[in-house]
Amino acid sequence: MTASYLAPRRLITERTEHPLGVGCRPIGGPATYQGRPAGWAEVADGSAVEALLRAHELGATVFDTSDVYGLGHSQRLLGRMLSQLERSSVRITCTVGTYKGTGQHAYSALNLFRQVEQAQENLGVDCLDVLVLAHVNFGPQDRYLDEARDTLQALRDSGDVTAIGLTVPATLVAGPAAAGPRAGRWGSQMRYDFLVEQLGPQVLSTAAVPLEPSFGASAAGAESVFSFARRHGAATMVHEPLLHGLLTGQYGPGAVFLPGDVRSQYTPAMRRIIHRGLDALRDRFGADPRTLARIALHHCLRQRPDSIVLAGVSSAEQVDENFAGLSTEVSEDEYLLAHRSLSMVYAELARHAESAESLPRLSKRP
């Protein structure tokens, strides 16, 4: 790594981490939760563990998992990797809250303790480096907020969790609420300022490619999650920098995904927008998915120079391609071309989302 934007980055402690982390959704395999796909394609367990070990060998230090990734299977495979390494060489970030089981609420005290204990058991660890809350729905009138705040502090005090993370929208709208069509898609600066004060998160997590209506970016007083994080002194993680692999050009409008694969929620119209939007990059760099993945990863790493970027992997070969790509720098002209092309893709997806009745739920974060 020679480019300045590939320097190590902060997550929680004084030590720094490799800028490219590992997203562990793909290794969890197919999964469905509450009628929605939450997993990936089938991946052999041995290949998955090999991929994780290879990523660590090449320098990765941050590995991100969730209770819904294979409904625990991703965590167990990550645990097999951890059993072969020095624990201090790895930072585990684990998202909870999407899956609440039979509990009354995902953030009740008993449910939070249970989710942490289950993750620790699956991973074979005593401590989660970052426990990320998947959403900020604490029930009617924030019924469970005080309970969650006290439980999270207890988990930190006991050493079961080192730091708390919070999932935050890409854009925060000025004002006390995100009303009307923004509800559920946007947060308000006031709301998230309040939640940061209450919960004290050290890490904020957000999507690399927000599928949000375009009016949000230009809303008066809107603030990006990255500006918000700097204002609060929090580190940031961005997930899905390859948009679940669609930015590699491998999955056109006719692609078929099996049940339980989160990519099945991208409609043919959305895949058509993405596939067509990559034409300028294909003309310049060729159609090899490995090259397009390299360009997209460099773009995200440069655009978010303070963030840990989490790229999903499912094989050692894919890991090799992702990390080898970092050794080939992207020129200023190439970066600007990628930025123009990908920005147009994001904008068109946002317009498409704005015209739809509701946004597809494509990530672990509701």
Explain this structure.
The protein has 366 residues and is an alpha/beta fold. Helix content is 37%, strand content 16%. It contains 11 helices and 15 strands. It has helices at 45-57, 73-82, 109-123, 145-158, 189-199, 225-232, 268-277, 279-285, 289-303, 316-325, 332-355; strands at residues 9-10, 16-17, 20-23, 32-33, 36-37, 62-66, 91-96, 128-133, 161-167, 171-173, 187-188, 203-207, 223-224, 235-239, 307-312. The strands form 4 sheets. An 8-stranded parallel beta barrel has the order 3-6-7-8-9-12-14-15, surrounded by 5 helices. Strands 11-10-13 form a 3-stranded mixed beta sheet. Helix 1 packs across helix 2 (73-82) and helix 9 packs across helix 11. The longest helix has 24 residues, at 332-355. It is globular and about 55 Å long. It starts with 8 loop residues before the first strand and ends in an 11-residue tail after the last helix. Residues 178-185, 213-218 and 361-366 have low confidence and may be disordered.
Order of helices and strands: EEEEEHEHEHEHEEEHEEHEHHHEHH
How far do the termini sit from each other? 34 Å
Largest sheet properties: 8 strands, parallel, barrel
Count of alpha and pi helical runs: 11
Shape assignment = globular
The helical percent reads 25-40%
User: How does the helix and strand content classify structurally?
Assistant: alpha/beta
* Count of β-strands: 15
- Rg is 19 Å
Instruction: Flag low-confidence runs.
Output: 178-185, 213-218, 361-366
Major sheet: order of its strands? 3-6-7-8-9-12-14-15
Strand content: 15-25%
pLDDT averaged residue by residue: 89
